[in-house]
Specification:
A: Rossmann fold, Rossmann fold, six-stranded mixed beta sheet, B: mainly alpha, 2 domains, 15 helices
């Protein structure tokens, strides 16, 4: 019998099923990866196993089985749970040292010599030994996650459950988090269940569970999983049938194609699964815009923009420009200053220092912006939409704000709905829709007035792999057919691949700014963008 | 311009109607809440527990006790000794205790100074002291003194001295104030929370227009509630007098709601979440209501508070409303109230615009 056995666990909420009849087995020292879209049931299963929500079925750990949070109580000293969200378990005004004492005290740990050695070891591994007197609120996102991790390791749990511990964390801290985890699992014989949004991380785990719509649809080593979809993956070629999808130099098809096979990645699993389930992926086809506004050579030029909040420098003399018909990716971890920068460009935050030129005009006050508003499109973080209006009502409302004639607005809304593939959802409320649909329809809302530049703030965060891939298809299409410029922020380093040029930010400063080609040329050994950025992060420490 | 204004207004009203909880809260506040305030808040004594110790053997003492009848007083309860009576006052079973000691009847008959001892529970100060006033009147009737002065009362404006309609009206004014502030603050803060406010600021629309349209939508909701409350509760339930013009009242209410929406805008400017709106609204509204004269007349306040009350738009609104309802003041004489409300409103709007309505 395995150390951890989960049998037919079902979690249901008022209206929907969180996870249906999930089973898994794990042995001491193993790291199990959970991958899948938002809302596919990863967190529900994690919370059920941690014994913090009600569930049906049985979880058996070390010969003790439990069926409810109450029964799980006896095992709580063996379980460590770290919920999703950066710094969620931390208290902003407590220092690192106080956190460790606090978690040791509520766990009722004996604080003897061996505890102190273990504590020192954890602090050292997390690189926090020199920061024991710093308040958690003043740590960077990566440090917060490392602190959260060592706080949940303090009682030496044998079963560690981590819900997206690395999402939005800078690549270096992410690597360090994994080093801590590997080391602990090996030395303490801990079972770790880890969900992640980064496929490169999943590939390194002992086994991977693939979640889709509240079910586990595949579980195996990542190599076996990749091999299972090998026969469906081809080099990019024209699709001949319905059940086929092309993206990013690869084509996935259930029926055999006359094209050479290529080596798939874990992402391929999602595409093949979608094809197998007969989900038709909306066909995306962007048409030319109606107006003929010319896109200037230099759309945006920022010189030494600085933003200071109290004694915290959010942006430290950031300079960059955006040319006509260019997609620039603004990359960086959470808290690197990406959103602050975009908000300064848009005028939502005052600029403390520096000069800004938008569409050839210097911006000195809010009045200068008034005339430019009709040429700028903006999609904010988390897709700001009115929750109490349907998709159609939302779009009509925004069209009204732009004074677009009603007939033009209606036809344009219909056209975008078709082109961006959300036609079927026009009369739904935003909260009833998957994130991927909301994402596309926020972009449609930002494009209703046919702007010449689009500012997108984290549009791909939390969206599943397929929706993200399609979203990039849309952006490439818009760039090609409309010839407009796009500035997009993201914390997925791998998305740099889709941009023309990338600007990398760290702790409020720009640390790299180059075209994708030049970056690849400068780092011939790097296998992925992830690695290129890791080098920048290391050298600019 | 017009189209944008109506689009925003329509959208806000639609959003309001679609949130069942909010609609229910507004309807409740304008009907049941006001009815409860009118029926429930009593200044006159009602159902007062009376206890007594009678060592005289009855006679005058019983005659006095028969004057203490329902609905003001419950039937007086007899205790055997003063200790027992004191204990029951201690245990909050009795509010007013009367002690007729042995010499009371004799002294009274002989025309000497008879002494009636009264024990009062002063934690319920107003009820027990009004009871004391009643008792003094009763005792006065018994002494058949030939006073050289007779009082002849003429009640003006509110002939029945009925304070139910008065209480209901005061509550209506407080409800208007609270709701308009919270509703307005919430429509702005909800947009801030969801990030749609940033999108709105980036639309090629004058932010002032957006703010005006959004405030107007909430003012309309409150005006609808006021009509509801007037029809069903203030006039329907409590038969409040209306000596002035209802239109003057509605106009004053409209202007006042707009001013208070300015307070809401101010609250929205300083809060980041709906929870903070609740906290700030209470911190800001409580002094405004205290200083307005809703609960204590302005002339009875400390001189400093009297000065401060000039900054409470609610003060002008309450004085104006009472003038319209009870005194029937003419339109032209209401001007000071209208201008007070308008001036304070304009100031608040100016601040709100600056704080949340502009790009940098």
């Amino acid at each position: 019998m395995a150390d951890l056995e989960v049998r037919n666990v079902t979690v249901s909420y008022k209206k929907q099923i969180g996870i249906k009849e999930a089973s898994l087995k794990a042995n001491a020292g193993e790291i199990i990866g959970f991958i899948g879209a938002d809302g596919s049931g990863k967190s529900s299963l994690m919370h059920a196993i941690a014994g913090v929500i009600r569930f049906e079925g049985e979880v058996c750990y070390g010969g003790v089985s439990y069926h409810s949070p109450k029964e799980a109580e006896q095992l709580k000293s063996n379980i460590g749970l770290m919920p999703q969200g950066i710094g969620l378990v931390l208290y902003e005004t407590l220092t690192v040292g106080e956190h460790l004492s606090f978690f040791a005290n509520i766990r009722n740990l004996r604080q003897d010599a061996s505890f102190r050695t273990y504590r020192q070891k954890l602090l050292h591994m997390a690189g926090l030994s020199d920061f024991t007197d710093r308040q958690a609120g003043k740590l960077s996102g990566g440090m917060m996650q490392k602190l959260s991790l060592i706080c949940s390791l303090l009682h030496r749990p044998k079963l560690l459950i981590l819900d997206e511990p690395t999402t939005g964390v800078d690549p270096l801290s992410r690597m360090e988090l994994w080093e801590i985890l590997d080391e602990i699992c090996k030395s303490e014989g801990t079972i770790a269940l880890v969900s992640t949004a980064y496929m490169q991380e999943a590939a390194k785990m002992d086994r991977v569970l693939l979640f889709d719509e509240g079910e586990i649809i595949a579980k195996d080593t990542s190599k076996a999983l990749i091999d299972s979809v090998k026969s469906y993956t081809y080099e990019q070629t024209a699709c001949e049938n319905e059940r086929c999808f092309s993206l990013d130099k690869q084509t996935y098809s259930l029926k055999p194609l006359h094209a050479p096979h290529t080596e798939p990645t874990l992402e391929a699993l999602f595409f093949v699964n979608a094809l197998q389930k007969g989900r038709t992926l909306p066909h995306i086809e962007i048409e030319a815009r109606e107006s003929q506004d010319e896109v200037p050579q230099v759309v945006m030029e920022a010189k030494g923009l600085t933003k200071i909040f109290g004694d915290f420098v959010a942006n430290d003399h950031v300079s960059m420009n955006l040319h006509g018909g260019e997609i620039v990716g603004l990359l960086g971890a959470n808290g690197a200053g990406k959103t602050t920068f975009i908000k300064m460009l848009l005028g939502l935050f005052p600029i403390d220092e520096g000069e800004l030129y938008l569409l050839g005009q210097q911006i000195r006050s809010g009045k200068d912006r008034q005339r430019l508003k009709s040429k700028i499109g903006y999609v904010s973080q988390h897709f700001a939409l009115y929750k109490d209006m349907t998709v159609r009502e939302n779009l009509l409302y925004f069209a009204n704000m732009h004074r677009i004639a009603v007939t033009t607005a209606l036809s344009r809304i219909d056209r975008y709905a078709k082109e961006l593939g959300f036609e079927d959802y026009m009369d739904y409320f935003p909260h009833e829709l998957p994130l991927g649909i909301n994402q596309r329809f926020s972009v449609a809302a930002a494009m209703l007035h046919e702007p010449v530049v689009l500012f997108l703030d984290e549009p791909t965060s939390g969206v599943d792999t397929i929706a993200r891939a399609q979203f990039w298809q849309i952006l490439r299409g818009v760039k090609k057919k409309w010839g407009i410029s796009i500035l997009i922020t993201t914390h997925y380093m791998s998305e740099a691949e889709y941009c023309d040029r990338v600007v990398l930010m760290k702790e409020g400063r720009k640390i790299a700014d180059d075209s994708v080609k030049a970056l690849h040329a400068a780092h011939p050994d790097a296998k992925s963008f992830e690695e290129i950025f890791l080098e920048y992060y290391r050298s600019k420490r | 311009m017009n189209r944008i204004f109506w689009a925003i207004l329509g959208k806000e009203l639609l959003a309001f109607l679609r949130s069942a909880g909010l609609v229910a809260m507004v309807i409740y506040s304008f009907t049941i809440d006001i009815y409860i305030a009118g029926e429930g808040i009593q200044i006159k004594p009602r159902n007062v527990h009376i206890g007594y110790v009678d060592e005289t053997g009855g006679g005058i003492s019983q005659k006095i006790l028969t004057h203490l009848h329902t609905p003001e007083f419950l039937p007086p309860k007899r205790y055997r000794s003063q200790e027992e009576l004191s204990r029951s006052i201690f245990n909050k079973e009795t509010l007013v205790g009367l002690v007729f000691d042995r010499g009371f009847e004799k002294d009274f008959r002989q025309g000497k100074q008879a002494q009636l001892n009264v024990l009062l529970d002063a934690t319920a100060a107003s009820q027990s002291f009004t009871t004391l006033g009643y008792l003094q009147n009763i005792v006065l009737d018994f002494s058949e003194l030939d006073l050289p002065v007779a009082i002849k009362t003429h009640k003006l404006f509110n002939e029945n001295a009925d304070n139910k309609s008065f209480m209901a009206l005061t509550e209506l004014l407080s409800v208007i104030t609270l709701l308009i502030v919270i509703l307005t603050a919430v429509v702005f803060v909800k947009e801030k929370e969801e990030g749609t406010w940033e999108i709105m600021l980036l639309m090629p629309v004058d932010p002032r227009l957006i703010i005006l349209a959004k405030s107007l939508s909430q003012v309309l909701i409150v005006m609808a509630g006021v009509v509801l409350a007037l029809g069903f509760v203030v006039f329907g339930g409590f038969h409040a007098p209306m000596n002035g013009s209802i239109w003057a009242f509605l106009l004053l209410t409209f202007l006042y709601s707009f001013s208070s929406a300015g307070i809401g805008l101010f609250v929205a400017a300083v809060s980041k979440s709906v929870l903070q709106v609740a906290q700030f609204s209470i911190i800001i509204m409580m002094p405004l209501i205290f200083l307005s004269g809703a609960w204590t007349p302005v002339y009875a306040m400390h001189p400093i508070f009297q000065k401060l009350s000039l900054f409470s738009p609610l003060r002008y609104y309450i004085e104006g409303t009472e003038s319209i309802f009870y005194r029937g003041t003419a339109f032209s004489d209401l001007l000071p109230y209208f201008s007070g409300v308008l001036l304070l409103g304009a100031l608040l709007y100016w601040y709100g615009f600056r704080k949340i309505g502009k790009l940098f």
